């Protein structure tokens, strides 16, 4: 367990030596609701673009210049930025139908197929693991059966660690294509395996590919999506994972009668990998990565294609204002300096708390909960859970850019805590058996649903949003490395803790961590809704706009 004391001390910026104008939300800007007014450059940001609460960062701006002053908007007239564009949306936002997301959607949908594969490989072992153990000669050995499942997590750990170097050097598009190689190869080796060693090798390769993709896809979507739709499009990661799990569980139904069906399921896992390779050939590269490596003309062309020509000049000015002039790659040691250490700490803490709030333990125990009410099929029980997860992800996609990341995160963890305590109540107090089972089922599904609304999608969305262009891949790699370590530990010790303390005590612990995470989000999470990545970076940076120490 990480000591709690350094957490608060690292999440504060040092006080500024002299009072200077701060980015704030003025009363007049509150009255002009729905209107976004933006200055020409970051050297004189408008006062209404306040991002950080005082407890996290004191954001300074230089004295405003006369060139940056913007006349107040006319009442009832939406600015051009709010209608479409880099700052507030992008694309064709005119008319009654808001279609600014249409041009970018095929690109982010193709990338999110990697999350479909992630979900598929989570669910593919749910049903046929006993058949695999019987055919490959390790039936009755729970350790080896667990190893076949958990070696996937070990591979993902190494994939997350190595992902940043690939992304920084090759860009998102090429990395997604290259990363499909271990995904395809691993699935093929697993499908034709005739020994335990071959199965372990295949699962390990798949894990490496998944480890890279879980870091890469949120970065790609956050950098390609227009600001107005970045949150909603970011939920495609969660939606893709849910659909992958449902697809694997549905395809696994014949395995209950066919002991060799698992090979077909694993061969089928090769297909999405080929589709990703082909689809990304037609997808755009991240304009932020292109600008970072000095390919400004290519970045401008991408912006014109997916956000609209009218947004190109403004977008390029903002990108150039935060891009480091040299082409060197960020080092891991930069995560120890301001402001990157705070963002890395927030990212690692969110995934640490997410895992110890018990999502994997609840998923594991859900089949037993359903069995108590007469649903004996593990695959059917998992399907109920998967569909609930998918429903929550759809709700999140609708709320992400309306309610904001912070509100969804807090509400999600409060809902998870309530669901855990509801299950604890049904277990610990003498109730009618049918009532107790009904409360357990309700609590389990409520927990999954509320997780899918915030704790699941927001965590992956907000970390790249808070990260700087230079260190985004490093922060994401570090955060997901923490995720995989905690995922492994929870899976390893969950049953031991249940045997030692009982389900009620363990679930009460999960509820307590959920409450702690809601408190953490309230105090330390910065709202990123409606802010471009460059605005967020400049607000969090203690350095002057456009400079690096």
Q: How would you characterize the overall build of this protein?
A:
By secondary structure, the protein is mainly alpha-helical. The chain contains 23 helices and no strands. Helix 17 crosses helix 19. The chain starts with a helix and ends in a 9-residue tail after the last helix. 52% of the residues are buried. The model is unreliable at 1-95 and 544-549 (pLDDT under 50).
Please outline the helices and strands.
Elements: H1 5-10, H2 27-31, H3 80-83, H4 105-123, H5 129-136, H6 142-191, H7 196-224, H8 230-234, H9 236-251, H10 261-268, H11 270-280, H12 287-292, H13 296-306, H14 312-322, H15 340-356, H16 359-372, H17 378-403, H18 405-428, H19 433-455, H20 457-466, H21 472-501, H22 503-524, H23 533-540
Relevant terms:
mainly alpha; disordered N terminus; 0% strand; disordered C terminus
Percent of sequence in beta strands: under 5%
| Average pLDDT for all residues | 80
**Which structural class matches the secondary elements?**
mainly alpha
Query: What is the element string, with H for helices and E for strands?
Result: HHHHHHHHHHHHHHHHHHHHHHH
Please provide the count of β strands: 0
Number of helices: 23
Spans where pLDDT lies below 50 across 5 or more residues: 1-95, 544-549
Determine the N-to-C terminus distance. 33 Å
**What Rg do the Cα atoms give?**
24 Å
Query: In one word, what is the shape?
Result: globular
User: Helix share of residues?
Assistant: 55-70%
Assembly type of the shown chains? single chain
Largest sheet: none
């Amino acid at each position: 367990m990480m000591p709690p004391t350094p957490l608060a001390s690292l999440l504060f910026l040092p006080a500024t030596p002299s009072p200077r104008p701060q980015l704030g939300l003025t009363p007049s800007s509150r009255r002009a609701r729905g209107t976004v007014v933006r200055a020409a450059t970051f050297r004189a940001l408008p006062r209404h673009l306040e991002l950080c609460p005082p407890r996290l960062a004191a954001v300074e701006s230089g004295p405003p210049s006369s060139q940056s002053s913007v006349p107040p908007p006319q009442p009832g007239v939406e600015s051009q930025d709010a209608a479409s564009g880099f700052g507030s949306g992008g694309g064709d936002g005119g008319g009654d139908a808001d279609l600014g997301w249409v041009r970018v959607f095929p690109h982010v949908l193709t990338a999110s197929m990697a999350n479909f594969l992630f979900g598929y490989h989570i669910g593919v072992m749910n049903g046929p693991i006993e058949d695999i153990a019987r055919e490959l000669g390790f039936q009755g050995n729970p350790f080896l059966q667990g190893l076949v499942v958990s070696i996937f997590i070990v591979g993902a750990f190494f994939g997350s660690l190595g992902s940043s170097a690939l992304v920084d050097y090759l860009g998102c598009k090429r990395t997604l294509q290259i990363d499909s190689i271990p995904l395809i190869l691993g699935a093929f080796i697993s499908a034709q395996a005739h020994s335990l060693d071959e199965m372990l090798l295949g699962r390990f390769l798949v894990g490496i590919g998944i480890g890279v993709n879980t870091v890469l896809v949120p970065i790609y979507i956050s950098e390609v999506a227009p600001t107005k739709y970045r949150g909603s499009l970011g939920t495609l990661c969660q939606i893709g994972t849910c659909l992958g799990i449902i697809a694997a569980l549905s395809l696994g139904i014949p395995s209950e009668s066919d002991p060799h069906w698992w090979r077909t399921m694993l061969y089928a896992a090769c297909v999405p990998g080929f589709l990703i390779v082909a689809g990304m050939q037609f997808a755009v590269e991240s304009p932020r990565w292109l600008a970072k490596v000095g390919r400004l003309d290519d970045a401008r062309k991408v912006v014109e294609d997916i956000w609209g020509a009218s947004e190109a000049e403004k977008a390029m000015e903002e990108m150039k204002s935060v891009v480091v002039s040299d082409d060197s790659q960020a080092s891991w040691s930069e995560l120890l300096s301001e402001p990157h250490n705070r963002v890395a700490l927030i990212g690692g803490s969110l995934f640490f708390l997410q895992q110890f709030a018990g999502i994997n333990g609840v998923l594991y125990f859900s089949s037993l909960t359903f069995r108590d009410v007469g649903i004996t099929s593990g695959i059917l029980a998992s399907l109920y859970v998967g569909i609930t997860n998918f429903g929550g992800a759809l709700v999140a996609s609708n709320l992400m850019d309306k309610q904001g990341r912070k509100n969804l995160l807090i509400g999600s963890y409060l809902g998870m805590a309530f669901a855990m305590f509801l299950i604890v109540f049904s277990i610990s107090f003498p109730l009618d058996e049918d009532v107790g089972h009904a409360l357990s089922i309700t609590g389990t599904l409520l927990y999954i649903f509320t997780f899918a609304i915030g704790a699941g999608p927001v965590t992956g969305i907000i970390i790249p949003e808070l990260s700087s262009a230079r260190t985004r891949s490093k922060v994401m790699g570090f955060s997901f490395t923490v995720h995989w370590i905690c995922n492994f530990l929870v899976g390893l010790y969950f049953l031991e803790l249940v045997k030692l303390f009982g389900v009620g005590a363990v679930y009460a612990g999960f509820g307590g961590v959920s409450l702690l995470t809601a408190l953490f989000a309230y105090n330390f999470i910065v709202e990123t809704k409606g802010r471009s990545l460059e605005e967020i970076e400049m607000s969090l940076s203690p350095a002057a706009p456009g400079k690096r120490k």
